[in-house]
Design goal:
The chain has one domain (2-116). Helix content is 43%, strand content 13%. The chain has helices at residues 2-20, 22-36, 51-63, 95-99; strands spanning 69-73, 78-80, 83-85, 90-94. The strands form 2 sheets. The protein has a two-stranded antiparallel ribbon. A two-stranded antiparallel sheet has the order 2-3. Strand 2 and strand 3 (83-85) form a beta hairpin. Helix 1 packs across helix 2 (22-36), helix 1 (2-20) crosses helix 3 and helix 2 runs antiparallel to helix 3 (51-63). This is Cytochrome P450.
Length: 122
């Protein structure tokens, strides 16, 4: 259930974001039509050519992470925001909150498929 649930949730969010952003949907559709030249069957051989769709997937994964809370265990003592965190402590990283922090991202609440264009962030 866990694997299919996260995959289906990711697809639902991606389709939802494209429906709310017709320009993104039209651009993604045009790219798929161009790359596969209206072939009846789409195969894996040319998926690497879908550059814009990759940006849509990156943006969707960033804005709607399938696992927004990531559990970790400290391998060495550290200090975070003035709190001493001893080795072996269990911490939960809120990936979603990091992704929408306006101190680090421009318009983080907006779906912008071009956000990661020419970016080293994967």
């Amino acid at each position: 259930m866990g694997v299919t649930d996260t995959s289906s949730s990711t697809l639902e969010w991606a389709v939802s974001e494209m429906l709310k952003n017709p320009r993104v949907l039209e651009k993604a559709q045009a790219e798929v039509r161009h790359v596969f030249n209206r072939k009846e069957n789409v195969d894996e051989a040319r998926l690497h050519e879908l550059e814009y769709l990759k940006l849509v997937i990156k943006e969707n994964s960033w804005l709607h992470p399938s696992t927004p809370l990531i559990p970790r265990e400290c391998i060495k003592s550290c200090k975070i925001d003035g709190y001493d965190i001893p080795v072996g402590s269990k911490v939960i990283v809120n990936a979603w909150a990091i992704g929408i922090d306006p101190n680090y991202w421009t318009e983080p609440e907006n779906f912008s498929s071009e956000r990661f264009h020419s970016s080293s962030i994967n």
